[in-house]
From TrEMBL:
Residues 140-175, 357-378 are annotated as: Disordered. This is Uncharacterized protein. It comes from the Bacteria. Residues 141-154 have a biased composition (Low complexity). The lineage of its organism: Bacteria, Bacillati, Actinomycetota, Actinomycetes, Streptosporangiales.
Amino acid sequence: MNFCLSDLVPPLRWSDASRIGILSEQGDLPDAWWRSLPMERVLGVMDPDALGELITDLALEHWPAAAVGDVLPALYVLDPDEADDPQVAIALDRAGSWPGLLTLSGRELTDQPFIKARPVLTALFTAVFARLAPSLAMPGEAAEPAPAKARAARSPVRHLRPAPEVPAPRTPQSDVDFPALIDGAFSDMDDRTWMVAQNRVFTDSPSAIEELGKLLAVSPDVLQALETTLRLWLAEWLDKPEAAPYKAHLAWLSDELGVAAPKSRLIAAAEWHKEELRSLDVPAWHFVVATLPGYQVSGDWLVAGDLADLHERTRGLILNAERPTVARALELVSSLGIHPDVAKEWLENVPQLSIQSGKKSANGVPRSANGATAAKPPGQLKDVALTRRCFRQPDGRWWLRVDVTGEHIQGAEVPMPTGFAAYLGLKPGENRPARSAAGDVELTWASRPGFGSLQRILTEVAAKEGSHVFLTISDEGMLRVRHLSASNGGDPTSQALRLVGYTAPGGTPDQAVRVIATRIGLSGPAGRPELLTRLRERGDRDLISLLD
């Protein structure tokens, strides 16, 4: 691999590196080594630890305003587990996600409470060079291939090997090894295409093409062309004889799912759906969803067609029925193609729908299909994708934006929308703690759900009135916090992107539509009218005023 350090560290290209003493002081390396010497020779003189410390010094002393991921873009395709360091774990918890950590600059890391910027940066940079070193063996040596995540992105699709022929199964539960069948076809993608496959095609929460382009430091047009090529090749592969067993499985699966089904039903439909595909480094069910004709993922549901349209048709059936009881509603909804065993769950997740079960609560008020009173307060939606100020970030989690007020800073409770509470698994009457770097925070649901005081967290991140914090809970029960200072003006498009947690510079109106649509759970291409309709349904008036 004939590439040098400046190919990996872009700031070396736009800096006057000849005037940076620390670079020219490396006595065992020739002049201008950072742009002339191949990396295998650099790593033959400097080990990954020394190189990591060198880049850390440069980042803190010469590029303090550059984002960590801009200093070394290869971090974006590094497995976070490879940067296994206690200081990195603390910084990751405070940033809320791996991409969030990489968007922080060295100066911002230095200013964060409880974070020691130098050991964090050294651990991150060293991890990349440690992963790179085995793949740069000298000629004649057998180099162990680095995992796909650590490959350097270089070229478009090289070659996708055809899968070996496998006898067609008698039933979808046959002895066909479907992961091997898929891995055989996708085991030889180049690195950029692999990133597009993992983040755009075989995922239930695709990354915005602009965000992925920024992560990989390439033009979105290049990635779009790779995605188009990959999807065409995928369609061709599905029509080949060797893919016949898999297509039979998809046909059986469509019958099993019906028009709409919880995502969990697809995952549990076959044991191999839960396995990891080695070629793509994604769960097998992600591949299945991407190839299931006509289906789209929206939140926790898999729907054939448009989710909003199916919601509307369901509401129309129920509202036009003479006696919309639960039994009648279950009968009606089956006419839409929804299987009886998921019909009740479907009805409970249709926004703005209340069905009387004929039962009454203690005070005589009729109860709905899910046991709550039929007079459900407007705006309290169970679907987090239809909940105001909730946004799905690139890490796949839904985050709640809290607009900081003086009362919050003084320790007042922070209200939580019921849709977000349901996403966190919080139930009415429940009170449970969530751990954070600043101590436990209570999650409560008495008359309404909410966070207890965030005063210590807001103080530590230096939040001011008018700034924003984005909150979510990790799988381990940790409260993750991302702070954005108050906006200092800017055009409406940038302000709108900021309100959904997107802070990359140079956003255009079309980009804003795509990014915001992705972050509120709209699947497939969505234009401005569809976006504004969904925002009105959610109640995001601040975003509507900036975009309309």
